[in-house]
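COMPLEX REQUEST
Ligand: zinc ion
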Amino acid sequence: MKRTHRVLQLESYRSPLVLRERRVPDPGPDQVRIRIEACGVCRTDLHVRDGELDEARLPIVLGHEIVGRVDAVGPVSERTMPDASQPADDTGPALRVGDRVGVPWLGWTCGACAFCRRDEENLCDRAVFTGYHRDGGYAEYTIAESAYCFPVPDTMDPTHAAPLLCAGLIGYRAYRLARHSLRGFDGAGEAPSLRLGLYGFGAAAHILAQVAIHDGHEVYAFTRPGDGAGQEFAKELGAAWAGDSTATPPSPLDAALLFAPVGSLVPTALRAIRKGGSVICAGIHMSEIPAFPYAILWEERTVRSVANLTRRDGTHFFEKIATIPVRTEVETFPLEQADEALERLRSGALRGAAVLVPGRTTD
Ligand SMILES: [Zn+2]
Ligand SMILES: [Zn+2]
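STATUS: Structure written out below.
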């Protein structure tokens, strides 16, 4: 058993991450220690590093798309559930050494605030997020709360599973919200086949496109203007149409999901949706949204955001993808090259998702 491990930590904002050797941590009550096999690189990591969110305590280890093996299990405490109506699975899986798990952005919730009690733990007043409030997965080992880990099948390649933990999950939550908002005023059913616009065709959109197409919907992929490779990629995955984010789609969309952190896309997407349609902003941060005329919001169009995830989202999502042959496209990087992976993400020079593999070393 190793006594120290390598972590890549953020020590000051807008600066390169720093490689450090740290003592391997021990799991506390209801926690597990995980030997990390892969950790996806999410746009949120870039926002944290750039100081675009409320500033985290430093140093912090980024990364919240973690896949690894349970390596040690902490003592189990007698947890009293705050609310008897909470689902029985609220305590999470009973984990054993050797189990493969995934650790998402949602690291802990209080279980007691108004949001937790109404099954909106994604909005918990005291939520702790992985790789933001507590150390994440740009490391060889990490600690997680057992109840917030998801089981990841042994048959899955860890590098391909990693992007599912945030890009996949958040995309899926946005997709469900979009579908929910399209039901009529009295809850009438949505159309069997929807026209869904995905703005920003990266890690989240390339996973969601496969799920939506499998569900019988049409995907319209919007990329950075001139990104022919991105548009080609979307078509390979079955998109009905792919074009520049500034383009008008051939038919009005039922919903537009925004994965690019670009505020000017909000009015653009509002102009692309039909009456009663919705624009869902799926990122944690976005540049300022320019003023727009009321006429493009009129006729019951909506704009809303998606924040974080609930454990139930994760359970639904992993059940769902067990029935769909989702193929995640990944580019792997050794831990030391996390900054390069982040810059590639920023510039849009990635096909699919970037994933760090801590076991790999640079030559
Ligand atoms: Zn709470
Ligand atoms: Zn993320």
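REMARKS: The CA atoms of residues 123 and 268 lie 28 Å apart. Residues 42, 44, 64, 105, 166 surround zinc ion (ligand 2) (CB under 6 Å).
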